[in-house]
Amino acid sequence: MKCTTTLRPGPMRRAGCRFAIAIAWLLLVVSTTCASTGEVQPIALSAPSGLDSASSLPASQNHFDVGATFYVEIWAQTTHSNGLSSVSLDLTYEANLANAMTITHSSLFSALTNGSIDNGAGIINDLSGSHLGPCTDAVGVAPAWARMAVIKMTAISRGFLVLASAPTGSPIYGTSICGIGDIDPAQIAFGEYTLALGNVPAMSEWGLTIFALALTVAGSVLLRIRCVGTRKITLFT
Ligand SMILES: [Ca+2]
After folding, report:
1. 3-state DSSP call for residue 228?
2. What is the pTM of this model?
3. Mean pLDDT of 49-66
4. What is the Å distance from ligand 1's center to 126 Cα?
5. Containing domain of residue 162, as a range?
6. Is 151 a member of any domain?
7. Could you tell me the distance, in angstroms and rounded to a whole number, from the CA of residue 90 to the centre of ligand 1?
8. What is the distance in A from the centroid of ligand 1 to the CA of 114?
9. Do the beta carbons of residue 69 and residue 75 sit within 8 Å?
10. pLDDT reported for residue 133
């Protein structure tokens, strides 16, 4: 009998789909809620900041003279209330514009330190430092920031220097939440900062320079016309 085989597959299938959607939604909410996010940001200063922690990111300077020494500071934060236990990154820069001299790790991230300067390739590779706890220290919990290291650099040529942070690509050196573990690098915002070395006009200054040149040329032409006109007037009087 055909009617005995009808176990209402339509409603059952719909109920199954609803259940699957509910589970997927729940997993999405849980994974979103549990995901830890972090941020790493280099800044540049003529002298190192006085403290290893700050309620907001210190303002960076945007210009240094050629030959000047400046300090690149690596700051980090996380949205997790446990705070950071490790911060790791690669920092790249244009090797023809600046050289890195030394790395000094902060007192907050003074354990398991690492980092190698390669001025030929323009990279500080696997720069890393750890804070071994306790987690109640809550190091670098947003909106606060924590300084991981200070890199002393020298400007060697004029131009725009891009200081770019990136994941280390190393299975050893990661960025971690205290008591939790490594953060997926995809969940970390790796920042960069561009500064001018030497007498390099900012983009807006280029416009002013061109405008000033145009005024000079126009003024010369007007002056020449006036002089010629004056000479003609003199001849006819
Ligand atoms: Ca690396």
Report:
1. helix
2. 0.72
3. 97
4. 5
5. 37-197
6. yes
7. 5
8. 11
9. no
10. 86
